[in-house]
Amino acid sequence: MSINIISTGSYATDEILDNESLSKMVDTNDKWILERTGIKTRHIAKYNTTEELASKACERALKDVNIDKDEIGLLLFATISSDTKVPSSSYTTAGHLGIENAVCFDVNAACSGFIYSMTIAKSMMKDMNYKYALVVGSERLSKFIDWTDRSSCILFGDGAGCALLENSEYKNELLKGKNNSKVYEKQDEYLENEVSNNLIKLEIKDAILGGIYDKKKYLTVDSKDKVSDEVSPFIEMNGRQIYKFATDIGVKVIDKLLKKNNIKNEDIAMIVPHQANKRIIQTLAEKSNLGIEKWFINLDKYGNTSSASVPIALDEALKNTYLKESRGKYLLSLAFGGGLSYGGILFKIK
Ligand code: COA
């Protein structure tokens, strides 16, 4: 039995905020931002909700495959910036997309949200026998940014990404088929899909999740509903401590995933990390002995988009690189962030 990513999508609005423009808002400059973070631009969604960004990313993923939306059994939405509380962003997005039969819920694990959600989706798809699941990461972090704080406003951006997962075991049940024209109709569609689809698939082989309670409050965004007068509705961060946490835990996640699955460094074709900071990625590459050329980086364009960062990067990696030559090898993805949460996921490239 395998659970595979069969399609991905991503979306960010056309409103771009570059370092030059930021330096007119706060006391900073392009050189400082580039050297310390690697970020050149970020997308700001002034006129779209978090759910709208997500819907556009999902539409792109669904456009590339010929599936029946009624067979999407699960829609998981990783976010810290949903625009409504009830219904959850997952339901709102299902509504936008015309998905009617899915179990929907949101996952808040900050920047690790997409990795957490993929892991939950894998288990639920097996246990509940869902044929397809949509896993989305979408954020409009700009609403949490203090545009007078130069230490944080340079780092974050808005965007959305998603992965469509398919449960290979479901096919067997379909193939058992009953003498029922509806079932046969879907079965034919399924087989047609299988044959015509020579796109790369990523099979989820293993995942590691973890967390440490952030008692010293290194990374927080308060809710206006907090039962206290001390509320900061902005992203508050101790950059140095988060940097240490990320570089320390990131190496441990990689090491554990490789050892647990008996995989050597040379079997890893690509690493798609959370896009927080280029220096964090460079440190991880050095410490894990996985050459920097294997790390997919697009944070220069988007900045840190929290839950959306890994699925946007995955989408661009699958569409813009030559992973077909790496079939049989592995792709590793990892994330870390508020909570403090962390996680890693290992895919086989098929
Ligand atoms: N432009 C210019 N100068 C800035 C600045 C900016 N945008 N932000 C801070 N500075 C200044 C500071 O005021 C400080 O000046 P001082 O030495 O006169 O006091 C100096 O630059 C160094 O600040 P510091 O905060 O120590 O810089 P740093 O090297 O730690 O880099 C971060 C700051 C935020 C880039 C870095 O800590 C980081 O990337 N941390 C991880 C953040 C992250 O990825 N978070 C999300 C994870 S999910």
Query: H/E element string?
Result: EEHHEHEHEHEHEHHEEEHEHHHEE
Strand content: 15-25%
Write down the domain tally.
Answer: 2
Mind telling me the CATH superfamily name of the largest domain? Thiolase/Chalcone synthase
CATH topology of the largest domain: Peroxisomal Thiolase, Chain A, domain 1
Number of helices: 12
Return the average pLDDT rounded to an integer.
Answer: 91
Low-confidence stretches: 176-188
Task: Characterise the protein shown here.
With 350 residues, this protein is α+β, with helices and mostly antiparallel strands. It has two domains: 3-193, 3-Layer(aba) Sandwich (Peroxisomal Thiolase, Chain A, domain 1), CATH 3.40.47.10; 202-349, 3-Layer(aba) Sandwich (Peroxisomal Thiolase, Chain A, domain 1), CATH 3.40.47. The protein is 38% helix and 24% strand. The protein has helices spanning 19-25, 30-37, 50-63, 89-97, 113-128, 150-153, 168-176, 181-196, 239-260, 278-288, 299-302, 309-320, and strands at residues 3-11, 16-18, 41-43, 72-78, 103-107, 132-140, 158-167, 202-211, 219-220, 236-237, 268-273, 330-337, 341-349. The strands form three sheets. Strands 5-4-6-7-1-8-13-12-11 form a nine-stranded mixed sheet, sandwiched between helices. A two-stranded antiparallel ribbon has the order 2-3. The protein has a two-stranded antiparallel sheet with strand order 9-10. A hairpin with a 3-residue loop joins strand 12 and strand 13. The longest helix is centred in the C-terminal third of the chain and has 22 residues, at 239-260. It starts with a strand and ends with a strand. Residues 176-188 have low confidence and may be disordered. It binds coenzyme A (COA).
